[in-house]
Amino acid sequence: MAGDALAPFEAAARAGGAGNTALHMAAHAGDVAAVRLAARFPERGRSGGRLAEGADLGMLLRARNSHGDTPLMFACTSGSLGGAAALLRAAGNAGAALVSERNEEGMTPLICCALAPEATGAHCAKMILSFFAPREAGDAAAAPADMDLVDRHGNTAMHYAARAGNVALVRLLLGVVGGVGASGRGGGSPAQRCRSPFLVNAAGR
């Protein structure tokens, strides 16, 4: 039965107690079939969460757990490219709004990508970046304004990627912004957060 793909995530969401929906759990696991099923049947996708009965797909995609995390943030944190892609496809024209959401710590889906395993985080980030609009119309070289978004500690996705030693993501972000000099609230620039000589040179250029 097709519905069985979502059943384990419904059970996990109900048992978790953190306000996660079944869609959160499926997105984190990267189970594309379950994500699609939850999007098709929002009443099942909202299981375990705090959404009221009758919640539609848009409300489900924007659902937040007790920490303010959305399903897309869960997918990005786990480096689930398939899960993130399925969510954004389901969102359609609302995808651009989803990628700019913030949780209670001020973290965006792009910042969440920097917390993912290096092998997959950069791929998720590349997809997220494709939804960002240029800073100035007609200026393809301008970094998207969304790249400047910081969390409650003043850190950008570049800060997190540099601190984690995520070479692939640092390279990706440098290709978009061309260089980074912003300091976090603690005063450290991305280059000062780096864990390898390569990253120190790259993030500090």
Explained architecture:
- The protein has 205 residues and is mainly α.
- Helices cover 52% and strands 0% of the residues.
- The model is unreliable at 179-184 and 193-200 (pLDDT under 50).
Main pleated sheet: none
Average pLDDT reading: 84
In sequence order, what are the helices and strands, one letter per element?
A: HHHHHHHHHHHHHH
- Tally of helical runs: 14
| Total beta-strand segments | 0
Report the end-to-end length measured between terminal Cα atoms.
Answer: 55 Å
Structural class determined from secondary elements: mainly alpha
* Model regions low in confidence, pLDDT < 50 over at least 5 residues: 179-184, 193-200
Query: What Rg, in angstroms, do the CA atoms define?
Result: 17 Å
Helical coverage, percent range: 40-55%
Shape: globular
What amount of the residues lies in strands?
A: under 5%
